[in-house]
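Dear support,

I submitted the protein below through the web form. The confirmation email said the job was done, but the results page showed an empty box. After a refresh the structure appeared. I'm attaching both so you can tell me whether what I see now is the final result or a partial one.
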Amino acid sequence: MGWLNRIFGKEEEEKAKKAPKGVPIYESKQSSKPTPSAVPSSAPSEDNIPPERLGIDGKYDQSGLAKRVVLAFDKDPNTDDIETIWVAQTGTTVVLKGKAPSQGDLDKLVSIAKGVYGCGDVDTQQVEIA
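What the results page shows now:
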């Protein structure tokens, strides 16, 4: 079981598989907005959906940022599902909770999360190092 399935359920995992190509997950290196080619024409315009509410399927989602962070964790070949870590969001802040096996594992998760489109900050105050 991967991050997305464990935290948000099978339905979200299926949504991710069917998501249109080009829904931005990662920040563009040049700006805080995705490049026009990164957003499919069928996706809502950035003016309509705040980046932190953009779901993995390109539609409005209250937990869009958290889901895209979890999807980024799943897509990273060097990040295993850490079953004792949970992901939430408060606005543009990604909130990590639970127990991390090591500081190195936590640092990797923070680095990935910070690279996700719409992430303004990562809060790790609720993470304990095992």
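Response: this is the final, complete result; the empty box was a page-load delay. Residues 29-44 have pLDDT under 50 and may be disordered.
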